[in-house]
Design the sequence.
């Protein structure tokens, strides 16, 4: 994740996935003029949480770490059309 973040430092979604919500908000404000982040708060938290998921495989086995999926270097974020419409 850090390698992808270094290649795309101006990507707000990657900043949110890395947990730097302030930087993600600054990028969205400067790039898209977003001013109300209350709708995005849960998306930021979901993106960060999905990046830190661990799944227990066997009762006494070590957990399996799962990282967020990337498509072309951009994270696949859990979102709905309703949450995107709220931004408009």
Sequence:
């Amino acid at each position: 994740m850090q390698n992808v973040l270094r290649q795309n430092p101006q990507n707000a979604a990657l900043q949110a996935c890395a947990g730097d919500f302030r930087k993600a908000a600054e990028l969205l404000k400067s790039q898209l003029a977003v001013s109300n982040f209350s709708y995005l708060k849960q998306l930021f938290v979901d993106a960060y949480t999905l990046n830190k998921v661990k799944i227990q495989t066997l009762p006494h086995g070590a957990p399996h770490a799962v990282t967020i999926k990337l498509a072309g270097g951009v994270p696949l974020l859990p979102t709905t059309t309703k949450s995107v419409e709220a931004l408009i």
User: Anything to note?
Assistant: The longest strand covers residues 53-55.
